[in-house]
Design brief:
Blueprint (H helix, E strand, L loop, with lengths): L1 E4 L5 H8 L6 E8 L11 E8 L1 H19 L3 E7 L1 E4 L3 E9 L2 H18 L2 E7 L4 E4 L7
Parallel strand pairs: 1-4
Antiparallel strand pairs: 2-6, 3-5, 3-7, 4-6, 7-8
Length: 142
């Protein structure tokens, strides 16, 4: 399941999409708008996401396929908000179902890291002082 939506993310629906009676593990990741930005002291009030949907869907599908090849067998669901995401709301969600937990955790971590590094989703941070700034979508250092 690959989803780009303006609607709030439904983690339970993603979990349901990866359930399989032969799998004993489901790992999830939920990325939530936080009140601060890396290296910027201004309080964040919201994020605005823009995306070229056809390209992003292709990139997300490639990440899902790559994740399956590396960590499979598995089922994976990836969802990302577009438009405005208010403080405290989820902007990205990933669920991975696998036979065992180490593979589920590793697959989920791999998928979010690859999403941040490879998918053309642009983030515009809005601050409490009225200013705004575009931020790059980059892989987080461990």
């Amino acid at each position: 399941m690959i989803l780009l939506t303006r609607d709030p993310l439904d983690l339970a629906a993603l979990i349901d999409a990866v359930r399989d009676d032969t799998f004993g593990a489901i790992a999830t990741f939920l990325g939530v708008t936080r009140a601060t930005s890396n290296g910027d002291p201004r309080p964040v009030v919201a994020l605005d996401y823009e995306v070229y949907e056809a390209m992003a869907r292709t990139q997300l599908a490639e990440i899902a396929a790559d994740t399956g090849r590396r960590f499979g067998p598995l089922r994976i669901a990836i969802a990302h908000r577009i438009g405005t995401v208010e403080l405290g709301e989820p902007s990205v969600a990933i669920a991975v179902g696998t036979p065992h937990r180490p593979q589920a955790f590793a697959a989920c971590a791999y998928a979010i890291d690859e999403l941040k590094a490879r998918v053309e989703i642009w983030k515009h941070e809005r601050y409490a002082d009225g200013a705004a700034e575009w931020r790059p979508n980059t892989r987080t250092a461990p």
